[in-house]
Queue: 2 jobs
Job 1
Amino acid sequence: MSHLLCSLHDQALKLSRQYLACEKELLEILVKIDAKKVYLEQGYASLTEYSQKALGLSRDVSWNLVTIVHKSKAVPELKHAVQMGVIPLSKARQIAPHLTKENSQKFIALAQAMPREKLQEALAKECPMIPSVEERARVINATQAELSLCLPKEVMEKIRRAQDRVSESQKKWVGLAETLEQVVEFYLQHKDPKEKAKRHEVRKIRATVKAAQPRRTVREFNAAEKKLEWGSKSLPIVQTKDRVPIPAEIKHEVVNKNAHRCTYQDPRTQLRCEKERFLHFHHKLPVAMGGTNALENLTLLCSAHHRLEHYQSSG
């Protein structure tokens, strides 16, 4: 081997050792940051958001580190194994979902002895009830995406039943992709706050048109009143002592106004949060300080940014 090739090899070895050392040190500092909730002080809602936005780590690297940080609270042996160089971060992330205090030594030994592919097979045999396939969703092209996940057998059977029903309704064989599309569409039509808010707007328009029409007879009015009374009994309204519940009509208005999306805006980038799940109704002026359920005093925040908002306001 020439002197040049040996020199390049030596440089690669040196940088590789430095990289692995930095990886361990970064894990250690993230454990401390998570314990002290430093990311909240820096204005980030979670350790994952802090890792990606503040530290500039990729999604995969950030996910690996944060998963190990959180699992290390229950199983400190995992963090120790990474810091001692027994296993790399990628394998630590691989065994983390299956790890407990009881099996930690066994699984860390497996991760140390096996390549990733063999380790995946061993995990599937050792923990047959725990999904060993990592959930992934990636865009293939402008119109298609690929989804990979592990499902309980019972859920797969339900999807097959749904596939039969969709095929019957369309009078042709329908694949799993189209079946999932139909099922998701049906669910969103009934559960998505956006769709509920749209229906609320339609009802308002119909009510306005109906109000302009001639009044109903006394008999029709009494029948409608009885129907309304019966419906109210099946859906009791629970009152609280300290605050008045936000009326459904106002909730719909807030959802429409904010397109059912978290309204938190990052003060650094001015970018709005993109989350549309686990949204909370947030009073801009707290109820304890006289805030009301008026539309202009309400907004939507995801659970993480709702927690951050209260943390910052209380500090």
Job 2
Amino acid sequence: MSKPVICIGAALVDDLFHATDKMMMHTTNEVTQTRTAGGVSRNIAHQLSLLDLPIQLISVFGNDADGEWLKQVCLEAHISLDASLTADVATGKYTAIINTDGSMFTALLTNAALHLITPEYLQEKEDLLSTAAFILVDANISVASINWLIQFTNIHKVKMIIEPVSVPPAKKIAAVNFNGLYLITPNEDELPALCSVDATTIDEQIKELLDKGIQYIWLHKGIHGSALYKKTETLQLNAPNANVVDCTGAGDGSVSGFILSKYFGKDNLNSLRTAHTLSAEILQVNGAIATHLNQEKLLNLVSKYYEE
């Protein structure tokens, strides 16, 4: 049996409000609404499952109608939920207002009860976790749980990736012992939040994180592409042109593309190209998932965006 990718973190209901005109403060704005399944780890799990990888999701679902709906969406996407929790809590929600150009105006997050994913709970899942090809963790879970997972993956030689999610959780996980971590994936806002106040430039921030024992730092730079840093070299790749409809999930999609490529043993450059291609496709649809793609279609699209 193929080794699974295990995603650990948020599963949310995404309520997205799309502005029909320029947003104005302190008055009523007309919008259209879409409701989709979301959450960083759930999004990545969903996208990778559509790309034909075996997926396990460890998350928390509320014992309510939203939670049942979210679980059904995951199961229909062939995401295994054997290790997830259902609790007597309200299912977490992500509410975003999207500008007419597809960029985010603002977003709100309600608690997804991820404090229930404790080191003790994860320890009960050791047999499953040890089978993983990759473990993807979003920074919504606790520092204690992330520290436990890094130690566990170091012992069991499993590649672990942390997605910082946004600035507040990035600040929180700055206290993590990152030694031995395979990859962390901040954007330009999240990078300084992961570092001390003494590191004031990107170069200083990257060096500080590499000195903590992280193997790779993948800096997302929006329309300027991304850069993959390790101690001995830096690899940069431009972002392809895309007609942006909705920015929701583009970063999650990028991580999904990278994991897919690495799952099949591709090198860093090919992995970045696949990552950027998937991100570009997500930018051109509403919602966080490129449901129009399977593995073959995605890999064929890479040459469209990046001609040899």
